[in-house]
Protein 1
Amino acid sequence: MKIIAVDSFLLALPYRTSGGFHYIAGRPSNTLAMLLVRISTDDGLSGWGEAFGHAGAAATKSMLDTLVAPLLIGERADDIGALMTSVRRKIHLFGLSGPAIYAVSGLDIALWDLLGKREGKSIAELLGRRRSDVPVYASFLRCSSHDALQQTCASAVAEGYRTVKLHEITVDRIAAARHGLGPDVALAVDTNCPWDLREATAMVETVRELNLLWLEEPIWPPDDYATLAALRNAGTPISAGENVSSQCEFGRLLEANALDILQPSVCKVGGISEMLKVLDLSNRQKVDTIPHCGYLGPGYAATLHLVSTLEQAPLERLYIELEETPFPSIPAVVDGWSSVPAGAGLGCDVDTGIVERYRVA
Ligand SMILES: [Mg+2]
């Protein structure tokens, strides 16, 4: 089971949303960039992964193709931990965050897919699945208008979602969504690091009465852990973690008492292997983990398997509709729940015709 090839595929997937004109990572967008990784071994198997992503996907692909992927050729695929540690040691001078570690993340997911396929077990089974179905929350893109937000709220409620997350940063919008969703739907708000301590404190006090499940990444700069800590215990749980690149850095966040909820992101933190280390850490320190998942390919499936090992955490799903998905067998969300694939590895077969149709690099 030696690795004989590593290939990457950058797709631009058109999508629809009821949220009107929209932005991803600060840029206007009407396609979702999905960076896929395929690892092939000499026993005829192949595994798929996904690396972050969006407007930075081309940079990750370059890092993957030129620096990281060549390190895997000829190596054994079955001792994932040893291989990933070896790769990290070789690339650390290029930064163990950003595109280098996003590339590692995609490769790690593909290796876990391969491991499951070789052993005939799903990743959830390999990890110790606790649930065969998990609740899913709808993660809206930031909407272009009040009307678009109300329409998106109505649509998610009609589809049976019981929890919604906004990417809005004004009290008007957050309160409007709280009203539009009705009393039976829980609400979280993701702000993507806009405020200093004074602004964030004012916002936390203002939204307290809206009973948010959590307020996500409220602080600029993101690594100002002391300021994050100062926002806690004001009536709204504080979450962050999608931009944290290792178990060690999560340890520093916990040492600073900065978070109520950890949100490691499988396509950014180093894949399933590093996620398991973060989950071990949060278990030991008894802090909730609700993984970040801004993905709809292997990153989504990997997060689904990981979430199935947790007692209560919901799964994040971007509330957009892809024109076509290269992984048609990823379970659909039904009434706000998703089944966990039982097939080997990620349990989601690729449609290579769709990969080629939407491939841009
Ligand atoms: Mg977020």
Note: The mean pLDDT is 95.
Protein 2
Amino acid sequence: MSSPDPVAVRATFTSVAPRYDLANHLLSGGIDFWWRRKLVQLAKSGPHEKILDLATGSGDVAMALRKGLPEKTEITGVDFCEPILEFAKRKRARNNLPVETNQFLVGDCLDLSFEDNSFDLITIAFGLRNLADRKKGLSEMWRVLKPGGRLLILEFSQPFFWFNPFYYFYLQGILPWLARFVTGDREAYLYLGSSISAFPNRAELCEELRSAGFSEVSANPLTFSVVALHQGRKKN
Ligand SMILES: C[S@@+](CC[C@H](N)C(=O)[O-])C[C@H]1O[C@@H](n2cnc3c(N)ncnc32)[C@H](O)[C@@H]1O
């Protein structure tokens, strides 16, 4: 698979936006809640004055971080798909959260509008795989992190080899049809399968993080390594 085309990616998330959360929870059997909780657990070891949640989508990670972190922590969600951000803003309103410390901004992960050294923590969940240029994205993340700041990546990975046949049978044979039922968009979930199989494994992604300048790089497999939590730090 060639690099994701940003126009097609934006169109895909515009199309699935109204059903995005429901599809996530149903198609993962609800395990996505647990994956995000693991991310928040890691995020809790501060400092966390200013957090940037990239490719925030409908804001589930931003909301999970909000629940787990002190009220004064500023959480900024960024996504380049405006329609899906509307769903994040609705969640903010439903939870009566102040806009000042819970911003959702339209922006491109490949060209962030923030100054160098702005954030204590950057999170990106199921977003890195969708970037047209991962190297550029990682270098932007490094740039806007404060020295000593951390990057946490929650993303699909390559499962343990013995789990592969079951996983890819589900991903390519069953999931697109289920997804068509839930979202009406089978193509979007065919894209999901091919983007996952084209994504680097844990060791390869760790190497990409080191090449982007991150230190203390590690990867923690979750659910037979269907998903992995990677972290890296911008050295002081
Ligand atoms: C699978 S969703 C993940 C949403 C959310 N983080 C979650 O955990 O559910 C991927 C998101 O990445 C966004 N995205 C992809 N490329 C982007 C880019 N270059 N800049 C900003 N957002 C991007 C898409 O618009 C989409 O909302």
Note: Residues 6-158+200-233 form a domain with the Rossmann fold fold (CATH 3.40.50.150).
